[in-house]
TrEMBL record:
Gene: Maats1
Organism of origin: Drymodes brunneopygia
UniProt-recorded name of the protein: Cilia- and flagella-associated protein 91
Subcellular location: Cytoplasm, Cytoskeleton, Cilium axoneme
Pfam families (alphabetical): CFAP91 (PF14738)
Predominant place of localization: cytoplasm
Family membership noted in the UniProt record: Belongs to the CFAP91 family.
Amino acid sequence: TLGTQTDYRDGEAQTDPYSPEYIVRGSSVPEILALATLTWGRGLPAGQATMEIIDRIREKRAWEAALPPMDSPSNVAKRLKMMEAMERKEWAYREEEIDKLQKAQMEVFKKLLQRREEDQNELDAMRLYNHWKNHQKAKEQKMRKIQHDCALMLRKLIAKRKNCMGKLERRDIIKEYNDFSSPAYAPLSRIGFFPDNNSDYYSVQNFYLNTFAGLCELEKSVGYSVDLIKIKAPKPKRTVTKTGYIKRAGRLDAVLAQVHQ
């Protein structure tokens, strides 16, 4: 019920059809020899254009058979007239073929030019978009800088307006202690205060924690239940479900253990 297909099937290994050698006996010329120039991939299998060529070859053979013999001046003149008409017909057919070929080439050129124009338009649109994007980014950066400078200048103007007359303000102790960002809570080092110098001022010096005798006395004062350490062993994680499926975490643990080993 199953079908298989190999990588090397008959269709891919097929060569050109075999054409055996032939011998023409007598003065007869078989019609098939007129198509000896057609090979597989170049005219075969026959399409519409190839069938038209075959019909033209047949018409030409029939025309050659219908030519009058050159045994009298009238037949020679008639033969020349028929050959001139055939030559004009051949030239007209050739001109028609050239026109068809030129039209096909023009269509191909039009498609290529249209495709190139579309690609160029797409490239130009992308370049314009990138250019516009860079200008927008520069514009936003400039606007942010202007807004930052504006806010800075406004803060400076507000600070100058508070003391526009140049008068000295008295210290408001209640206001300073209500504001946790004031120098009362966070003095500045530029005015001579270094809070890190007295960092051990608030450290607790405990006799029971800093000395060995204090630790021994502390152990005697506490009960036995405090010294008893109760540690429960963690339960192993279940990495296998009830249906026998190994969870993803279990697979990762196994891979990590293998890599660690």
